[in-house]
Specification:
Blueprint: H1 4-15, H2 21-28, H3 32-40, H4 61-71, H5 82-93, E1 104-108, E2 111-115
Antiparallel strand pairs: 1-2
Helix pairs in contact: 2-3
């Protein structure tokens, strides 16, 4: 993985000190293509998806949204937990998705996110 300090080293060494790409590749242990990308300033790494698909949960998202919106008027102790949302989906809507307790449904800024 290309760390930020290596990124700065490569860019400075190439632009200021005139090091060539092959030498920088040997010095950092990265391929010449990676060094070229760093010199050009291309972004690297991963980016977050704009829309996370939930193939099994998708038909039930509006139902969950209405429950969570209704919970805003309820006292804090009476609101839905992820476990209760799952149990209601199974009982009332014949949901056949995952029950994994490590996956929590969170309402964040109008979106439901699965966090492990």
């Amino acid at each position: 993985m290309f760390r930020m300090d290596q990124y700065e080293l490569v860019r400075t060494a190439h632009r200021v000190y005139g090091e060539n790409i092959s030498e920088l590749s040997r010095m950092t242990g990265h391929s010449r293509n990676t060094i070229k990308k760093a010199i050009r300033g291309e972004p690297w790494g991963y980016k977050e998806r704009e829309h996370q698909p939930f193939p099994v949960l998708e038909p039930y998202l509006q139902i969950i949204d209405t429950w969570i919106e209704g919970d805003k008027e309820q006292p804090k102790k009476q609101r839905h937990t992820a476990r209760r949302v799952y149990n209601r989906l199974v009982e009332e809507h014949d949901y056949r998705g995952c029950e994994c307790l490590q996956i929590l449904l969170h309402k964040v800024g109008g979106q439901i996110k699965c966090i492990q």
